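Budget justification aside, the reviewers requested a transparent look at the raw inputs and outputs of the sequence design task funded under Objective 1. We therefore reproduce one unedited record. The lines immediately below are the structure tokens for a 620-residue chain.
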């Protein structure tokens, strides 16, 4: 303890000498006790403690065994003990037989002749057992294993001490390793369980060296003891392919256990190496042995996603019959596969769209949302979004339930990603707007409701400053639209168009005019104030461009007619705005003013026109 903790060199040297004195003095009498104490200190986290324990262990082993060939001495004593014990048993049986004779022989028949007497055999057995008790073979083999491993200590001083100690107590390394192999392998397996610590580093180096010295015999001994981790990496990377093939079953069991419980990436690395060296068929064997072990399956996927994913997907989703078999597991697989999912994203989304339209299948919306959120922001998400938009447009199947299912998927995608949607699928925003706007006027109520919910969710997550950029897509889709928009979807679309008008964007006024054309008076009535106010302001602003003013005047005329009696409060402002436009210096503005006024007057029975003030204004 002093040699481990003190920083004083003189004190450490004195403590080390005291330890040597204790070892020399009490080696014969208390060898087992001292060996047990030193065994604990050989894995001390302080390198000075390990250094002192290595030196003292070597000295103690030499003192107890009295020879460098300790393995030979141990084997000899164990063999002698077994032989003497057998002799003792046989001699006792023969003596019992002689005692049972009727006494007719001359007395020589009961003797052992040249063999050992029972008393001699017993005394020899006791002596041998006493010698073995002083050496404690099991403990000494553990210590020999510890000294062997200490040669690979990352601290140079400890590694040097371990090398010196090993040479001092071992005369034949291969023979010693073969004798202590089960004990040493068990000790190394224990060290390997210390993930990321000094013990794991020791275990990895020792296993590498032992495998190099003893070859294939190490593998079947250590594999049943490994719990995954760095040891499997060493085995899979360094063992000959023939050895890996001959121990295939043991290796699969170790990998399966490691993938299920190993929190580090070592076992996944080992599997990756094994697949590279042996072949992809290993993945099939592993997956078949995993069963429903979720953690293990995901670990296999993380190791080789591009190879494992095609083997796992058929268990979770039937792409041919369009059935989802295990949605919860599919979510986890998508989250773990990264960009490898890209080549399957389109087909999986297609299957989800069709499955959502199947009344026999009920997909949990929360799980679907998690799946869409788990998609990588790179290629998989783009492929999936493209497939969903194709479903909205009817390319997967023209049936309304299928298109409605695609709308629901898109809504879940947008809701899950929130404002990040505009950056994650920026290339698909315009396409999604066109597809949804063209769908919101369909006659099927379920499809219409699904499309409106998806379009509303999309417009809600687009930042206000980015909404004007959506106007061209809205304009193109509204030009081809047939039917009226419902009040539910009209309000957010009008909001986007008004922001465009106030930002000086001509397309905003065009979209606003188209929106007015695709709604009835009842739907437009709640929006009169929010529409007419900006139009009056911009069309009467001489600082605005001629093109913007002419477009807003046309929209103002259309909005006034659609508002009907609801525009009564704005009639004076509208008339004065149109009259000023008629007197504007710009010819295009005058013409647009005349056209707008003509539209309003043509609807005089609907719009409460104030003809008196209008005539006076025109006269002046």
């Amino acid at each position: 303890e002093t040699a481990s903790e003190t920083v004083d060199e003189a004190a450490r040297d004195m403590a080390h000498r005291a330890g040597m004195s204790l070892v020399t003095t009490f080696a014969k009498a208390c060898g087992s006790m001292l060996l047990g104490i030193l065994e604990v200190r050989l894995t001390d986290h302080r390198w000075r403690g390990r250094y002192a324990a290595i030196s003292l262990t070597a000295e103690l082993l030499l003192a107890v065994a009295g020879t460098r060939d300790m393995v030979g001495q141990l084997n000899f004593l164990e063999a002698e003990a077994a032989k003497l014990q057998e002799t003792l048993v046989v001699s006792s049986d023969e003596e019992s037989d002689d005692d049972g004779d009727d006494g007719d022989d001359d007395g020589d028949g009961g003797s052992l002749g040249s063999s050992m007497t029972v008393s001699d055999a017993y005394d020899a057995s006791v002596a041998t057992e006493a010698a073995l008790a002083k050496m404690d073979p099991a403990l000494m083999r553990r210590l020999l294993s510890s000294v062997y491993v200490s040669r690979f200590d990352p601290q140079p001083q400890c590694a040097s001490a371990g090398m010196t100690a090993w040479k001092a107590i071992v005369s034949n390394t291969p023979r010693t390793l073969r004798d202590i192999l089960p004990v040493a392998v068990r000790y190394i397996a224990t060290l390997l369980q210390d993930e990321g610590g000094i013990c794991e580093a020791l275990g990895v180096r020792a296993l590498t060296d032992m495998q190099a010295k003893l070859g294939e015999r190490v593998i079947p001994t250590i594999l049943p003891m490994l719990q995954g981790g760095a040891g499997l990496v060493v085995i899979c990377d360094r063992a000959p392919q023939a050895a890996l093939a001959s121990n295939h079953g043991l290796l699969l069991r170790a990998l399966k256990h490691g993938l299920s419980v190993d929190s580090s990436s070592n076992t996944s690395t080992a599997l990756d190496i094994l697949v590279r060296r042996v072949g992809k068929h290993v993945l099939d064997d592993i997956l078949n042995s995993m069963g429903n072990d979720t953690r293990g399956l995901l670990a296999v996927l993380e190791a080789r996603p591009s190879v494992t994913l095609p083997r796992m997907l058929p268990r979770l989703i039937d792409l041919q019959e369009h059935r989802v078999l295990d949605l919860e597991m599919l979510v986890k697989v998508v989250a773990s596969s990264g960009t490898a999912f890209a080549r399957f994203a389109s087909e999986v989304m297609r299957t989800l769209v069709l499955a959502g339209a199947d009344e026999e299948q009920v997909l949990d919306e929360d799980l679907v949302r998690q799946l869409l959120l788990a998609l990588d922001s790179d290629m998989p998400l783009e492929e999936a979004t493209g497939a969903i938009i194709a479903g909205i447009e009817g390319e997967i199947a023209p049936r309304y339930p299928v298109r409605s299912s695609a709308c629901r998927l898109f809504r879940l995608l947008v809701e899950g990603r929130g404002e990040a949607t505009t950056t994650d699928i920026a290339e698909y925003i315009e396409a999604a707007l066109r597809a949804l706007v063209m769908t919101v006027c369909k006659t099927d109520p379920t499809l219409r409701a699904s499309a409106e919910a998806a379009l509303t969710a999309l417009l809600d997550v687009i930042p206000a400053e980015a909404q004007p950029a959506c106007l061209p897509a809205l304009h193109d889709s509204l030009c081809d639209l047939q039917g009226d928009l419902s009040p539910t979807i009209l309000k957010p679309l009008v909001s986007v168009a008004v922001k465009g008008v106030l930002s000086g964007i001509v397309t905003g006024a065009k979209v606003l005019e188209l929106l007015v054309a695709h709604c009835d008076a009842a739907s437009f009535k709640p929006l009169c104030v929010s529409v007419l106010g900006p139009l009056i302001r911009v069309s009467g602003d001489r600082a605005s461009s001629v093109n913007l003013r002419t477009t807003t005047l046309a929209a103002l005329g259309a909005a006034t007619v659609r508002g009907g009696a609801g525009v009564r409060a704005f009639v004076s402002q509208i008339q004065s705005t149109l009259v000023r436009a008629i007197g504007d210096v710009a010819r295009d503005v005058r013409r647009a003013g005349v056209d707008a006024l003509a539209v309003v007057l043509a609807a005089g029975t609907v719009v409460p026109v104030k003809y008196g003030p209008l005539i006076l204004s025109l006269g002046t």
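Residues 178-303 form one domain. The two ends are 111 Å apart (CA to CA). Computational costs for records of this kind are itemized in the attached budget.
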